[in-house]
Amino acid sequence: MSALTNLADIPPGEGRAFAHDGKQLAVFHLRDGTVRVLEAVCPHAGGPLADGLVDKAVVVCPLHNYTYDLVTGEETSDSGLSVCTYPAEVDKDGSVHVTL
Ligand code: FES
Fold it and tell me: How far from the centroid of its chain's Cα atoms is residue 51's Cα?
């Protein structure tokens, strides 16, 4: 399994977008050192979720502020929108691996 990125390349509290196995993924390095991986494109109007503000629980789409749970991918205002989330692991060397 190849590494998607190294955690050291994403500052804590930020996200980055990657293309991987035909999918657009948003990878977030949370301030507690863990990683969350979501589908990168907001289903509302295509906003870049990797550029959104993130905390330990949610990411806010930078275009119209819809907010997605980092674990379930559900939008939190009952809009009915959701994104896929993917399990990710970080090796001892910081390599980030995602299971699609
Ligand atoms: S494109 Fe994300 S909230 Fe509109």
Answer: 10
Specify the pLDDT at position 30: 97
* pTM, 2 dp: 0.95
Backbone dihedral angles phi then psi of residue 61, each to the nearest 5 degrees: -65, 135
Please give the full DSSP string across 14-81, using - where no structure is assigned. Answer: EEEEEEETTEEEEEEE-TTS-EEEEESB-TTT--BGGGSEE-SSEEE-TTT--EEETTT-BBTTS-S-
Q: How far is the CA of 38 from the centre of ligand 1 (A)?
A: 15
Q: Which atom of ligand 1 is nearest to the CA of 61?
A: 2
